[in-house]
Amino acid sequence: MELGAFSVSLAVKDIKASKAFYEKLGFKDFAGILSRRYFAELADPEER
Question: What is the pTM of this model?
Fold first, then answer.
């Protein structure tokens, strides 16, 4: 079943720790500027 695009925005205290957490889960950098306190991670549905 193909669900399409899905996004979630979360406010976090430590953006670097949050980024590291999602990268451990297999998400990859997609967009954003960490120094401006935002980033986007992309999950590849083919890898799940």
Answer: 0.63
